[in-house]
Amino acid sequence: MKKSNVIIGLTNPKSPSNVGSVMRAAGCFQVDSVLYTGERYSLAAKFNTDTKNIARHIPLVGVDNFIENLPENTQIVCVELVEGATSLPEFQHPENAIYIFGPEDGTISNKIIEKAHSVVYVPTIGCMNLAAIVNVVLYDRLSKSKLEIAGDALIRKSRDINNKTKVVC
Description:
Layout: E1 6-10, H1 16-28, E2 33-36, H2 40-44, E3 60-62, E4 75-79, E5 86-87, E6 97-101, H3 110-115, E7 118-121, H4 130-143, H5 152-158
């Protein structure tokens, strides 16, 4: 069975700590690549907080345009607090998607939103931090998928080396 293709698109991110946290989420949730537009991240990249060095395994690439050169059958999903968007709990994730997120201090351009297959928002009071919302969307995708994701083998593989705790009933 062919693995789905998941791409994250960050619109002109300004915070290297957020991009580092997005990269960590990308590793946790098996994202294929992370793209970003704009100049701000490149200027601040030396302060990157990718503590797991995920960028060695998942490409982090600056692009001029998210939509050009997407893999075939990739659906564009904009994640933004905009009127008319679909609430994340109601959203059914496509198998192959690029999830485009707005910047911390702005929004996704109308040009991109108009080309999107879906526009989704997380129903919160106020707006969330960029890295937090990426984690929420990727977790939602995983929780709604048919992948086998539970079990002690996964826990042993994923946890920190200092954690050997077991639940004893």
